[in-house]
């Protein structure tokens, strides 16, 4: 990672003290102390004695002892709700000007995630770091580097609250607060970016696409792919490179890219560079910093303090709910290959906050991780321990083997003939038999997951599949008010979302 603002010890001194210059624990301790000093006079900082933590010999351990873990509901009800009423200095100094609206993929009600000016500044620094990291790539499409950025973001026309704050998709907030020097490169421009209706915005982008010289596309894969498909169809060309010959980069995040890759490749005339970042409503967590890296590198030195809770039965119940006092590890204590849930403390006033993602370290030395799923989005009816990572990989392998595109899918587990079954709903416009898809997905999952393979021979009796047109998934998301930008179709269907999905299928005659 390009280290722009690191505080580094002289090499000789670092060697004499036997301290690595970029020791992860030292970086994270500096971040924690900075956050504690900044927030010590807030209501939260006073209640949990941030001054005492700062004066302790082991501030990270004292921080864990003093401050409880939070999920969204607990921190919102006790703390963040006050900030919506205009109360300052609650969990972070000053008033909150922006809130990122996040419904997640399981709850219908919007979540209001605070976004501070300090967080926006941190995000800008990290975007610049990510861009600089590209310069080390061996296969860099140099003609694309200085071309336009098409950002498929939410509307920059934000809703205004009674206390003077503004709320909307994080991508819309970031686009509204883009630095002045970025104006030259930014597309689709201010007028189109304000449009709230996603279909209208897409059609405006298509109409103006030929006027732009795009080098980068930035956004969630599903919506970016849809936009490119619409452009190709509108201009009656073979590939997107017929319109944007200098397109060389796709910057994505939010969901795993594997299910979309085959569909993307069909729209391209030449290879492009895929760059994954780990940007959530709560902060910019990491990005792919090396060309051939297996995972994304966590950003350890820019205002996010991270803790890692082993994702196991000791810390989470069968529904993925975290216990009251989980065992949390620091960055220097994690193990490669083990699955963790991420807790974050940030310069937007989140403290020991469960973001809901599960991670696995693939390179501890470089702090590189892959996202394996969500704490509440996994299937383990009978001990099959099926993660979203397994599902994404199986979909990718099936897509490659059959040369088809499966841009969306969802899975549900349920009792079946005295035992249990999984049912897959897949978006696929290619003509392929449902039985073949189910067989192929099931076969790859048996190869990828030993627990799944064992249970397929016993309690997990059947794998069923229903193929639907891609349009059905989009119509459902539109019906849910989640069309566009950062909204994703849930990979595991449970609870209220499953009920609404079944009702939707009945309405369109697909049940």
From TrEMBL:
Q: Which residues cross the membrane?
A: none
The domain of life is: Bacteria
Among InterPro entries, the record links this protein to: GH3 (IPR004993), GH3_C (IPR055378), GH3_M (IPR055377)
**One Pfam family cited in the UniProt record for this chain:** GH3
Residue span, GH3 C-terminal domain = 394-494
Q: Which residues are in the GH3 middle domain?
A: 298-363
| Name the UniProt record assigns to this protein | GH3 auxin-responsive promoter family protein
Q: Which organism is it from?
A: Flaviaesturariibacter amylovorans
Source organism phylogeny: Bacteria, Pseudomonadati, Bacteroidota, Chitinophagia, Chitinophagales
């Amino acid at each position: 990672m390009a280290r722009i603002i690191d505080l580094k010890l002289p090499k000789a001194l670092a060697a004499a003290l036997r301290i690595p210059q970029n020791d992860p624990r030292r970086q994270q301790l500096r971040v924690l102390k900075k956050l504690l000093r900044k927030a010590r006079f807030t209501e939260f900082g006073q209640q949990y004695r941030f001054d005492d933590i700062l004066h302790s010999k082991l501030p990270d351990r004292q921080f864990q002892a003093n401050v409880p873990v939070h999920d969204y509901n607990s921190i919102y009800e006790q703390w963040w709700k006050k900030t919506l009423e205009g109360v300052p200095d609650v969990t972070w100094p000053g008033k909150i000007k922006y809130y990122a609206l996040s419904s997640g993929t399981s709850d219908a009600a919007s979540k209001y995630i605070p976004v501070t000016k300090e967080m926006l500044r941190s995000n800008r620094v990290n975007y610049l770091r990510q861009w600089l990291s590209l310069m080390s790539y061996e296969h860099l499409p140099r003609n694309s580097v200085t071309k336009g950025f098409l950002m498929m973001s939410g509307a920059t026309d934000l809703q205004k609250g009674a206390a003077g704050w503004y709320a909307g998709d994080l991508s819309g907030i970031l686009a509204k607060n883009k630095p002045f020097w970025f104006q030259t490169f930014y597309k689709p421009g201010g007028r189109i970016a304000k449009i709230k209706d996603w279909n209208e915005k897409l059609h405006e982008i298509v109409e103006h696409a030929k006027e732009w010289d795009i080098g980068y596309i930035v956004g969630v894969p599903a919506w970016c792919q849809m936009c490119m498909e619409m452009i190709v169809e509108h201009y009656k060309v073979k590939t997107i490179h017929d319109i944007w010959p200098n397109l060389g980069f796709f910057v994505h995040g939010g969901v795993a890219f594997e299910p979309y890759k085959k569909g993307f490749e069909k729209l391209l005339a030449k290879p492009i560079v895929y760059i994954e970042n780990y940007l959530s409503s709560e902060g910019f967590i990491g990005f792919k910093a090396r060309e051939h890296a297996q995972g994304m590198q966590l950003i350890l030195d820019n205002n996010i303090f991270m803790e890692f809770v082993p994702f196991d039965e000791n810390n989470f119940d069968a529904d993925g709910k975290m216990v009251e006092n989980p065992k949390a590890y620091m960055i220097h204590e994690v193990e490669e290959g083990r699955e963790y849930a991420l807790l974050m403390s940030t310069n937007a006033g989140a403290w020991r906050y469960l973001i809901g993602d599960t991670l696995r370290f693939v390179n501890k030395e470089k702090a590189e991780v892959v996202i394996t799923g969500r704490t509440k989005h996994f299937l383990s009816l009978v001990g099959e321990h099926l993660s979203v990572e397994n599902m994404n990989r199986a979909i990718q392998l099936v897509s490659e083997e059959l040369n088809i595109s499966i841009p969306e899918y969802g899975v549900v587990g349920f009792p079946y003939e005295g035992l249990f079954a999984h049912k897959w709903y897949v978006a696929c416009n290619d003509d392929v038999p449902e039985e073949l898809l189910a067989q192929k997905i099931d076969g790859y999952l048996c190869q990828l997951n030993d627990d799944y393979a064992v249970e397929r021979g016993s309690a997990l009796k059947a794998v069923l599949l229903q193929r639907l047109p891609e349009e059905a998934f989009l119509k459902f998301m539109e019906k849910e008010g989640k069309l566009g930008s950062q909204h994703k179709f849930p990979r595991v269907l449970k609870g209220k979302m499953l009920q609404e999905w079944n009702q939707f299928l009945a309405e369109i005659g697909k049940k």
